[in-house]
Amino acid sequence: MKNAVLIFGVCCALLIAGCKKDSSGSEPSGGINVSGTVQAFGGQVISGAAVQCYAGTAVTGSPAASGTSNASGVWQVAVNAAGRYTIVISAAGRPTAYINVVIPSGQTSVAAGTTILAAQQITGTVNDAQTGSAISGATVRFFVGSNNDTTGYRFPDLTTNAQGQFTTALTLGTYVYAIHAAGRVPLVANRSVTDTTATQFTTTVTQPVPAGQMRIVLNWGSKPSDLDSHLTGDSTAVAGRPRYHVYYANRVVQAANGDTVAYLDHDDVTSYGPETITIFKFFPGTLRYKIHDYSNRNTTGSHFMSDSSGATLRVYTSAGLVREDHIVTGIAGNQWYAYDINGATQAVTFVNTIRDGVSNPADSSFRPVALPPKQAAK
């Protein structure tokens, strides 16, 4: 199976009275009608595309039904039973599309929507969340689907090279990918493809987190080049002690007995991440986790972090990945106040506020205008 051929078609159920004609103009001989449209990127219809419908989520054996798109790009096939099907759509000179369709019991017709036979070239990189180093030999699997569902059609495995990279091409649609690497927590995440512009993305997998600890991992895109993680919290349980602040100029905080309280595992300044902070010890009080757009620290009203970064946060404990959050778009500001963490219960609250300048007034330890320059800090 060619690596440069993947797609997810949007599938929606639509009850239709009676039967439609198939692409050849004849009436389907009973069963359940499945129909859709094939287009090129830009909306041009594709006629003569081959359509094969396989039972289940694997493309093996003989198809349960087959057809061809007509002069309007419309296709239709008939299957005998409800259930899950994988539909393969191919046309000369274009990438092949794969669609998962679920037909509920009692349904007589299903509209599979519009399938666009156009691909995006993707270069992905898998790094270690704590060191930032590339991970070779990791297995990357793509599935047709969304919402972290890995039960859809599975494409052939990819393996990262010595630089931690893999390459593929995804046709327009939504996908789920899973990354498995030795000694790391498996990662399952979603990825959408909306255009044909070649792109690259970097993601990270982390080593298991010991019981009682927490790790927060930030990844983003090519712009801005430098996003910084900041964590503030109570350094001891003694009342009146100042709040600690872990960031690029103060990477480790230790308790009076020398135990590490929190540590900035990795600071990235050249896009993508990771920016990783591990919390080793918790004390009563509220920890605050924020992200500062260092690249645009002197710009008021910047939209770079919100609209360009595509920032993603993942929180890990000994239970594995416990939450994943994404930055919202359309909001000006160079600071993303992401989490409040309860020091007594370790419960994480998604604050999700973007603003300029000073953080929460109750937390005077983080004022971006007063941060030391990185040239002096590193």
What is this structure, in a nutshell?
The protein has helices at residues 304-308, 374-377; strands at 12-13, 32-39, 50-55, 65-68, 74-79, 83-90, 97-103, 109-116, 119-128, 139-144, 158-159, 165-171, 173-180, 187-193, 199-205, 214-219, 227-234, 243-246, 252-254, 260-266, 275-279, 286-293, 312-317, 320-326, 335-342, 348-355. It is an all-beta fold and 378 residues long.
Average pLDDT confidence is: 87
Structural class: mainly beta
Percent range of helical residues: under 10%
Q: Give the CA-CA distance, first to last residue.
A: 48 Å
How can the largest sheet be summarized?
6 strands, antiparallel
> Which fold does the CATH topology of the largest domain refer to?
Lipoxygenase-1
Order of helices and strands: EEEEEEEEEEEEEEEEEEEEEEHEEEEH
User: With helices defined by DSSP (H or I, 4 residues minimum), what is the helix count?
Assistant: 2
Secondary structure: number of strands = 26
- Number of separate domains: 3
CATH architecture of the largest domain: Sandwich
- Provide the gyration radius in Å: 25 Å
- Which outline best applies? elongated
The main sheet orders its strands as 19-20-21-16-23-24
In CATH, the homologous superfamily of the largest domain goes by the name sav2460 like domains
Strands, helices and their partners?
Blueprint: E1 12-13, E2 32-39, E3 50-55, E4 65-68, E5 74-79, E6 83-90, E7 97-103, E8 109-116, E9 119-128, E10 139-144, E11 158-159, E12 165-171, E13 173-180, E14 187-193, E15 199-205, E16 214-219, E17 227-234, E18 243-246, E19 252-254, E20 260-266, E21 275-279, E22 286-293, H1 304-308, E23 312-317, E24 320-326, E25 335-342, E26 348-355, H2 374-377
Parallel strand pairs: 2-8, 9-15
Antiparallel strand pairs: 1-8, 2-5, 3-4, 3-6, 6-7, 9-12, 10-11, 10-13, 13-14, 16-21, 16-23, 17-18, 17-22, 19-20, 20-21, 22-25, 23-24, 25-26
